[in-house]
Amino acid sequence: MAMSSKLFLTATITALTSSLIAINHEFLYHRPSVVEKISSGREWEALQLEGAIGPESFAFHRLAGGPYAGISDGRVVRWEEHERRWINFSFASQESARARQLKKVPIVGAFGPESFAFDSLGKGPYASLSDGRIVKWQGNRKGWTDFAVASPNRDGCGGPRDHQQTEHICGRPLGLCFDETHGDLYIADAYMGLLRVGTQGGLATKIVTHAQGIPLRFTNGLDIDQSSGAIYFTDSSSQYQRRQYLSVVLSGDKSGRLMKYDPVNKQVRVLLSNLTFPNGVALSKDGNFILLAETTRCRILRYWIKTSKAGTVEVFAQLQGFPDNIKRSPRGGYWVGMNSRREKLSELLFSYPWIGNVLLKLPLDIAMLQSTLSKYRGSGLAVRLSENGDILEVFEDNDGDGLKSISEVMEKDGRLWIGSIALPFAGRYRI
After folding, report:
1. Do 44 and 153 lie in a common domain?
2. Residue 85 is part of which domain span?
3. Tens of pLDDT, residues 22-66
4. How many structural domains comprise the chain?
């Protein structure tokens, strides 16, 4: 087929797909019922607001409690009963309200801060970038400084551009986590496998590149059991690399794995296989189970490590969006970054996998299709789940011009550090 015909076909299908996405945007949750007055038969209590006035009405969420109140500076706040204070929930559309809360921390020479980690001294965060670097935040004065690289091949890796075509050469670090005992940083690099770098940084060392004879093709998320040193990590696909992620989605690929690396005996064990785009992982506080995001199935799985349930897996939470990384919150529960909402178009593709397979067989420019569809991911979205999988809190950038494709939310010292695979900055938001 002539190149012009191929581009025309790709453009036509992309335009049609984009139109369907634009038409079918849905709310993530049902609108809660609104109440005008709360009376409990007890004495009235003043619940003071900081920095604003005017909670005219209240609302309760069917899953995430409340009450919620809209106040004068454009925020919607939620009452946290166990903390006895109001916390920020979301913003109205006013730019001034959002700008006072969300800070953009620019990334120089790259984009896509996928994941964050703080070292054992609480320094950081460290962030994984699109050009194969891991950088360290040194405060507003120094900004980001280079800490480590995933690959020794750095020619052609720099510059603020799309690094997708050079990722297999430069590396693409995704999940990050520090071993607090030894101070080493472990890195899940999509192409290089499981890596480790010491406290002085520099070139990371490859630790795991295969599991049960099968190469790691799309290493993604990881977490560490700080008591034993065991590392839990995912390989999103045994068939496709990260730069072919749309093929993973459209084909319904089920070759992903959850693995455990023991640094003492240097052995790797496959805990779960035949997974559909396994992504972020997070160990529970007591170490009894690990949570795993199955991205294209819009759900979080719980794999039991200890107790009588050890070795079993169950659905922890079913979401209305595509989950990415998972991080424990110091306030309890887990933050889940969401790449985008689950739209009617995606429902159609996942209900009828043959549609995706037909699209893959057409002479399409997949890179062009991926680039165009990324523009329709909508506003940034993340949820905090309880220890039982219930929704405790929702973070959403309603305007959609600031944050999109949220990959991770990491909470530290009263701030949320927000990552995205698609943006040239990290978000910083004070709770």
Report:
1. no
2. 34-92
3. 434 433 333 332 333 344 455 556 666 665 566 767 777 655 667
4. 2
